[in-house]
What does this fold into?
Amino acid sequence: GALILWASAGPKRELGREDIVFVVRKDEKRFGTLLISKGAVEWRPTNKVYRRKISWDKFDQLMREIGNRV
It folds into this structure.
């Protein structure tokens, strides 16, 4: 099925060909970029050569194993 992402303050959006991009800031400085796509989540740290990509299934497994319950 389609992966749909929405923020509590915005409309629902079905993921298509283009990633949804979030610029993440920490202590008022750019910390990295989070890209959301149909197939994966990708993290691009600022000032780093490498990128990290994980499938949604692996992301779900990772969060269930090490994520904090809220």
About this structure: The helical segments are 56-66. The first helix runs from residue 56 to 66. The beta strands are 4-5, 13-14, 20-26, 29-36, 40-45, 52-55.
